[in-house]
Structure formats: structure tokens, C-alpha cells
Amino acid sequence: MMLDQQSVKIKDPIRTVENNESNWEYGSENHWLSEKQLKEFSGDKTIYDLYPDAALHSTGCSVIRSVLWHGIANRGWKTIWMPSYFIKEVIVVIQGIDIEIKFYHDNPLMTTPGLPTEKLTSEDVVFRMNYFGWRGAEAILSSQDIGCDIIEDHCHDFIGAWATQSQATYCLTTLRKLYPLPDGAILWSPQGEEVPEAPATTDSHLAAVQKKLSGMLLKQFYLNGCDVAKEEFRKGSLDGEDEIGGTNGVSGACELSKHLFSVLSITKLSKLRNENFETFKKLASPSVKKYLAWDTIPADSYIFSIVFLFDSESQRDLVKAYLIQNKVYPATFWDWPTEYALDDPEGKDFSDRMLSIHCDFRYNADDIQKMLSILERAIEGFK
Ligand SMILES: Cc1ncc(COP(=O)(O)O)c(C=O)c1O
């Protein structure tokens, strides 16, 4: 059977079953957690325990602006080296800052992380990324090793071996993707360098948080079977996301997140992702597992999501469409930016064929099984 656009539209037996069960869905934006879950996820290490000297911001982009302004003014940075495989929205933010951007070859498939091949000086700063939490302690490098300052992005695993043992000048992560909270991001210096102060929280950021929070609460009501239209929670979430960080792009986090970061355990939340990944691998058939892009979690590390690499972009897009029709909302990232003329065909190919499915604290083995049975059907279409 070939899975084509038409069969995606009409061949949908599982959907009927799911639709009888309240408003179950899988993936996409976080919803607000119940009190019971909030209690369940407290009681072990918090982010404040792990990085007591970190500066708390609203978003990762707020952190990036702040650390670049600081490095340009105080550390002589003139050029930032960005990995070829990276999120364009962040590159656009950096383009608004007075620093030259150059790219070096690095992507998730490179088992030895890429680095600039040119000679680096104290006017350079290299930005490194731990894609999907696939890189462990072996990726650690210090400024002395490469000849200039290093900024590391640990958004995909901020408590794994690389992040906690880092020797970089600065490390950053957004927190709001892996916590059930509307905002939050941190900057810390493993080398004990001066960390620019956490910014004040702006009114414009708080207005965006209010929209995000209502989207999260409405999504929780929806998932619990209340009479809430999907467009309502989607709108709050999308409007909030557009405005988050505030009009000048730099802000502190809201009081609610500041408080809950001291309650929620990041170790518990992270362990659940690994457990769900292992559950997925146990339950998945060989025909699904053959599309896993990566199936090994580095020692003392935590993966971000379940990442697949399909045979072609069109196959990936068909699987994605089928999942969405069956209320499983995966992600593809990052779209390849053609305007930068990046010399990384392998990275572009990965971007074209990859699909990421969540496996975070929102889900248990039953959810994983349900999601998997839908994915199995999508993949069966190619046999
Ligand atoms: C790898 C990475 N770094 C930084 C950011 C920026 O974080 P924020 O969206 O909180 O500004 C993102 C956002 O998705 C990201 O994926």
C-alpha cells in the first residue's frame, strides 16, 4: 500500500477510536499541569540547585542579546561563529547586534562536533550546540583548547553531562520548552566569568505571558474534555509567543515561573523523557525503529525528543500529515535557511527528512502506545 495524500485524507480508522476518548491529543505546546502533577514533579533537584549563580531571563533570545552585548563591550568580541545547523529565528536576533556572523560546519549527524577551521583569536566567540541531547561529556572543550571564548546552547539538555561539566565561557538555555511554564531562560558561566545581571521584567513581556498562560490553561481544560474550542487555546499560545520577551526583546521572567523553578524538579522532568524514550523503543516494531535517527542516550544525559529520519522529504511530510490528522503534533526543525549559502549538504538533508516527536513529562506509557500505533499505521503505508 502506498501512502499518498488521498489515503492520508480518507484512510483513518484509528482516528475514530481516538475521537471517542475525550480530547486526547499528543505533542505541540505545553498545557498547564494539574496540582497533582505539579506535586509529583517536585522534591528533587531544581534548576536553582544546579546553577545557583545563573541569571534568569524571560527567553533564550533575551539571554543571547544580553551575553553578546556584554561580550562585545567587555571581552572584545567582534565575530561570532555559528553552527551551520541552527534555528534561523536566533540568527535573525544576532543579526540585529553589532557583531559579524560567520558559520562553521556542524550538524546533528556529526559524531565529532564541528568547529571553525580558521585560526581563532580573542576577537572571536564560538557558539556550540548540543543537538537533541545527543552529545555527552566527550564534546567538552575549553577556551584554551580552541583559542577563544565559547558560548554553549544547552536548550535540548541543560542538565546532562556536557552542560553540568562544561568548561565554556558562557552557557545558556531556554527553560520554557521543557518546563510547563510560560517563560524562563538562564545564562551561567562555568568558568566563573562575570555574568550580566538578570534584566527587570517588562510590562510588555508580562502582557505576552498572560496570553501564553491563558492558552496553557485553556489547553488543559480542553484536554480534560471541557467545552473549549481548540482555536481558543491556540490563539492565546500563538499571540503570546509572538510577543514573548517584550518589545525590546530583553526581560526577566514572570513571578510565577520564578517561583515554580524553585519547586519543580528538573531531574524528575528530564528522567521522564529518557524513560518515555526507552518505553517507545520497547514498544516500537522494527519497521518504526528503523527510522530512528539516534537511539543511544549518552551517559548521564537526557534526550530532548524522539527524532526520526525518513527516506525522503516527501515521505517525512506524508507521515507528518497523517500524524496531525490523528492528533499527534510533531515538529520539524530547523528549516534550512537558503539565504545564508551554508556549505553543509548533510545538514540540509537532515533538516529535510527529520521529524521530532515529543516524549516529555506530559506522557505516560499509554500515551506512548497510542502515539505509536498511529505512527505504525503511517509507516505501514510505505510497505
Ligand atoms: C536551540 C535554541 N536556542 C535558543 C532558542 C531561543 O529560545 P527562546 O525561544 O526562549 O528565545 C531556541 C528557541 O527555540 C532554540 O531552539
Short précis:
The chain is of the alpha/beta class and 383 residues long. It has helices at 5-10, 13-20, 35-40, 47-50, 60-74, 88-95, 143-146, 161-164, 203-223, 230-243, 255-261, 266-283, 286-289, 313-325, 345-353, 365-380; strands at residues 26-27, 55-57, 79-83, 100-104, 124-129, 149-153, 170-174, 185-188, 306-309, 328-329, 354-357.
Secondary-structure topology with pairs:
Elements: H1 5-10, H2 13-20, E1 26-27, H3 35-40, H4 47-50, E2 55-57, H5 60-74, E3 79-83, H6 88-95, E4 100-104, E5 124-129, H7 143-146, E6 149-153, H8 161-164, E7 170-174, E8 185-188, H9 203-223, H10 230-243, H11 255-261, H12 266-283, H13 286-289, E9 306-309, H14 313-325, E10 328-329, H15 345-353, E11 354-357, H16 365-380
Parallel strand pairs: 1-10, 3-4, 3-5, 5-6, 6-7
Antiparallel strand pairs: 2-8, 7-8, 9-11
Bound molecules: pyridoxal-5'-phosphate.
Pyridoxal-5'-phosphate binds next to helix 5.
